[in-house]
Design brief:
The protein has helices spanning 3-23, 25-49, 55-103, 109-115, 123-149, 154-170, 172-181, 188-226, 232-242, 248-265, 269-295, 303-317, 319-344, 347-350. By secondary structure, the chain is mostly helical.
Length: 355
């Protein structure tokens, strides 16, 4: 098979996969979630299997522990998050009014120096920006909801996902061996090397970043709650979850928590400084302790590329797109680097050809 025919074959295969994902995105959520869960739990299942249990019993034990942990977590945390989210929505107009009153107060000399004689108009650009951001966020969330809600209900997600994950865990090694047998023999070494690199990137980022999110979420939630910040548990928990994208969670958390702290504690500077200090400590903890130990060295997934992949796939495919965004981003990154290496070694770049 010539190189041109090979490229046509793989482009056609990719097109079929994208079309299937697009057409079936409304029913794929529990299956994709189950596959992602099985991928995350496979190392733990292997560890339990080494204790003498069979693969099926090991998978069953791991899934049971995960389900119990999730149920306990939901029972303990969900009421707090729901109550604080409802209160935040109810009190957000008051907080916005306080911040606007603080910014537009002409009696404060530092504000007058910044805004000059047009202090009263200072909030118009920020108000427009907030409105545009809220409108964009609403469109994005409505896209996720409309594309993910049609067929798949919450009940089916909770029931089907663990079942899919269990069966995939039981047959994981067999599936990998089967797919490996489909690789064309002349290209098997190259494909295996690329697959290992993709797996290393996904495993290092997803498993490591998941641990970072849990640790940071607990840290921010507890620390902000102890400072007395209103909705501190909610803000801290969401900040930890959003830390899946490096720097985005921290920036979002410090902006939201800082705004709430200023509206709540002003003119007392000490609690406001404590809130900002909590986020500075969290960033140091993430950058110099958690990330080097849990994620490791450079993995080839740039934060900008991650943000684009999550937004693009989430907008196009809903919740399913969010689940497949990281693996696809890692795979595309590895393949692009491989293509670049091939190009730099080719006569097209070096100018050296056969005589």
């Amino acid at each position: 098979m010539t190189l041109q025919r090979q490229m046509m074959f793989w482009v056609a295969t990719l097109a079929v996969l994208v079309a299937a994902l697009w057409l079936l995105s409304e029913i794929l959520l529990p299956f994709v979630a189950g596959m992602a869960l099985a991928y995350l739990l496979d190392p733990l299942t292997r560890q339990v299997e080494r204790l003498g249990l069979g693969r099926a019993l090991s998978a069953l034990a791991i899934m049971a522990l995960v389900l119990v942990a999730l149920v306990v977590l939901v029972v303990l945390i969900t009421p707090i998050l729901v109550a604080q989210l409802s209160a935040l929505i109810d009190h957000s107009p008051d907080y916005v009014a306080r911040l606007q009153a603080l910014v537009t107060d002409p009696s404060r000399p530092w504000l007058a120096k910044i805004f000059g004689d047009r202090v009263g108009d200072a909030t118009k650009p920020s108000t427009d920006l907030i409105a545009q951001g809220a409108h964009w966020l609403g469109l994005f969330l409505s896209s996720l909801w409309s594309r993910g809600k049609t067929v798949v209900s919450v009940f089916s997600l909770l029931v089907v996902t663990p079942v899919v994950a269990f069966y995939l865990l039981c047959d994981w090694d067999r599936m990998i061996a089967t797919v490996d047998g489909w690789i064309p023999l002349p290209h098997r070494d190259t494909v295996r090397a690329l697959a290992r690199e993709i797996d290393d990137n996904i495993a290092a980022f997803v498993r490591g970043q998941a641990g970072i999110c849990l640790i940071l979420g607990a840290y921010y939630a507890v620390a902000l709650t102890l400072t007395g910040l209103n909705f501190g548990f909610l803000i801290g928990f969401i900040t930890g979850l959003m830390s899946f994208i490096p720097y985005v969670g921290w920036l979002t958390g410090i902006i939201v928590a800082g705004a709430v702290a200023i509206a709540q504690f002003w003119p007392s500077a000490t609690p406001i400084a404590i809130v900002f200090g909590i986020f500075l400590i969290g960033q140091v903890l993430e950058s110099y302790v958690l990330a080097p130990n849990l994620v490791g060295a450079k993995i080839g997934l740039h934060p900008v590329w991650l943000m684009f992949a999550l937004l693009a796939f989430g907008y196009l495919f809903g919740f399913v797109g969010l689940l497949v965004a990281i693996p696809l981003a890692a795979a595309i990154g590895v393949l692009c680097r491989f293509a670049l290496r091939q190009y730099l070694a080719s006569p097209l770049y070096t100018g050296e050809g056969p005589n």
